[in-house]
Amino acid sequence: MKVPASVERRGTAAAVNAAERLADAVREQVPGVSVSCEGMEMAVTGRGVLSDALLRWPAGLLR
After folding, report:
1. d(CA 63, CA 53)
2. What's the Cα-to-Cα distance from 4 to each of 1, 16, 18, rounded to whole Å?
3. 32 phi and psi angles, rounded to 5 deg
4. φ, ψ dihedrals at 31, nearest 5°
5. What is the dihedral of CA 46, 15, 20, 53, to 10 degrees?
6. Runs of H (alpha helix) within 1-63
7. Is 38 exposed, middle or buried (0-12, 13-18, 19+ CB in 10 A)?
């Protein structure tokens, strides 16, 4: 079944908005990290990022 283009655009816009909100939340809640968000792609960099429990949960959602 083909998804109508208008529905696909709304879904993409919602996903981009969610990624931006998540990036903002990570910036606020996790000191010492750098967060970049481009479209639906988000990158978190910093010391101890992989060992931080605050980041493991959202990272698991985005895989």
Report:
1. 16
2. 9, 19, 21
3. 80, 10
4. -70, 150
5. -40
6. 5-29, 53-62
7. exposed
Q: Rounded CA gap, 26 and 33, in Å?
A: 8
In angstroms, the CA 32 to CA 29 distance is 10
Predicted TM-score of the model (pTM): 0.68
Cα separation, 38 vs 9, whole angstroms = 16
Query: Using one digit for the tens of pLDDT, what is the confidence trace for 5-54?
Result: 999 999 999 999 998 998 898 888 888 888 898 988 888 888 766 666 66
